[in-house]
Amino acid sequence: MAELIDPFNRRIKYLRVSVTDKCNYRCGYCMPPEGVHPEGRHTEYLDADEIERIVRAFAELGVRKIRLTGGEPLIRKDLPQIVRRIGRIDGIIDLALSTNAHHLARHARQLAEDGLDRINVSLDSLKPERFAAITRGGDLNKVLGGIEAAQRAGLNPVKINMVVMKGTNDDEIEAMVDFARTQGVEVRFIETMPIGPAGISVMDQHYPAEQILKRVRAHVGDELIPLASRSHDGPARNFRIGDSDTKIGVISAVSQHFCETCNRVRLTARGVLALCLGQEDSVNLRDPLREGISDEALKVLIVDAIKKKPERHHFNENIHNIEFRQMVNLGG
Ligand code: SAM
Ligand code: SF4
User: Ligand 1 center to residue 187 CA distance, Å?
Assistant: First the structure.
C-alpha cells in the first residue's frame, strides 16, 4: 500500500481536520472580536460526504489518527454524522476532538457512541469572570459540565489545554495542576504561538514551558517523570507527577521545535490541505473533488501534496516576518 512519506523521510500518520473556522467564543489569541467570515457561505465548507472521502483517501494512504478541530466543531450541526462516518473508516484507530466544551454536555454520550475516542478541551482559567474575559463571553460552568459529561461518557483521556499568558492567567498554573489531580484529567500547558489576529503582540504574553515546569515541580514537591513520547504527541512533552496517575504536559511549539518528527498535516474547513502550521505551503483538495476527481486521482494529488511539506517552521528565526495566519483556519 502507498504510504505518505515527505521529502524529509517523515511518515504522515496524523490528519487534523478543521470542520469550521467559526466559533461561539472569541479567545483573544485566536479570534478577532467580531469572529471570522460572518458572511462565509455554507457551500464554501466541505460537507460531511467530502470530509469522509478525503479522510478515507488518507486512511488508504496510511493515516491512522484523525483530530476534528476548528473553529469550534460543536457548532456544526452535522458533527455527530461526521464522527460516525469517520469512525467507520477502516484504518482509523484514533479519533479525537478539540473543543471549547460549551456545547459538550448534551453531545458527549452520542459522540462516544458514534466512535469518538478522546477529547481535548480548551480551558484557560478556572475563575468564571476571567474565563469570560479571555473567551469574550464564555461560560465556565457549561465547560466544566461538558468535561464531566465527557468523562461519564467514557471519553478517555480527557485532556485540558491551557494557553498560559503572562499577566493574564499565569497565576493559575498551580490551580490547574490541582484541577488535574482532583478531576482525573490531563492538563497540558501551551505556550502562546505567534499566529492569530493579535499576531506578534501575543508574544508579549509568552510564558516559556521551562518556567511552567519549574512552577509545577515546586507546587507538587515531587518529581516529574518524563513519559515516552507517542507518535501523536507532536510538540508536547508529557510527565507523570511522582508516583500518582496524574499526567501533565507542556506544548512548546515556539521555544523548542519538533519539526524533525512532525507526522501531521491539516485540512482546513474549506478543503485546503495545509502542510505546516508555520508555513504557507498548501494544496486545494475541495475544487478537484467538486470537479469530479476519482478516488485514485485524489490519492495521487495527496501524495504529490505531501512532497511539498516544508522541513520546519520558522517561528523563532522569522518571528517578525511570519505572515500570521489564523489558527482557526488551520485547525489549531
Ligand atoms: N475551539 C476548539 C478549542 O478551543 O479547543 C478547537 C480549536 S482551537 C483553535 C485549538 C487550540 O488552539 C486551542 O487549545 C487553543 O487554545 C489553541 N490556540 C489557538 N490560538 C493559539 C495561539 N495563538 N497560541 C497558542 N495556542 C493557540
Ligand atoms: Fe474558539 Fe477555540 Fe479559538 Fe477559543 S481557541 S476562539 S474556543 S476556536
Answer: 14
* % pLDDT > 70, the chain: 85
User: Do 317 and 189 touch, CB atoms closer than 8 A?
Assistant: no
Question: Ligand 2 pocket test: which of 19, 22, 25 has the largest number of ligand atoms within 8 Å of its C-beta?
Answer: 25
- What pLDDT does 270 receive? 94
For residue 323, how far is its CA from the centre of ligand 2 (angstroms)?
20
Q: The CATH number of 14-324 is which of 3.90.226.10, 2.140.10.10, 2.60.40.10, 3.20.20.70?
A: 3.20.20.70
User: Which residues lie below 8 Å from residue 274, measured CB to CB, with a gap of 6+?
Assistant: 265, 266, 267, 268, 281, 282, 330
State the pLDDT at residue 324: 39
Q: Which of 190, 325, 329 to mutate to test the pocket of ligand 1 (most atoms within 8 A of CB)?
A: 190
Report pLDDT digits (tens) over 66-125: 999 999 999 999 999 999 999 999 999 999 999 999 999 999 999 999 999 999 999 999
| Atom number in ligand 1 closest to CA 25 | 1
Q: Is there an atom of ligand 2 within 6 Å of 122 CB?
A: yes
Q: Are the beta carbons of 15 and 65 closer than 8 angstroms?
A: yes
Going from the Cα of 173 to the center of ligand 1, the distance in angstroms, rounded, reads 18
C-alpha distances in Å from residue 28, one per residue of 23, 195, 197: 12, 11, 8
Do 188 and 235 contact (CB within 8 A), yes or no? no
Does the CB atom of residue 332 touch ligand 1 within 6 A? Answer: yes
pLDDT value of position 43 = 84
Ligand at shortest distance from the CA of 74: 1
Residue 181 in grid coordinates: 489531580
Q: Is 170 exposed, middle or buried (0-12, 13-18, 19+ CB in 10 A)?
A: middle
**Among 23, 18, 78, 98, which Cα is nearest to 54's?**
18
CB of residue 195 inside a 6 A radius of ligand 2? no
φ/ψ region of 281 (left if φ > 0, alpha if ψ in -120 to 50, else beta) reads beta
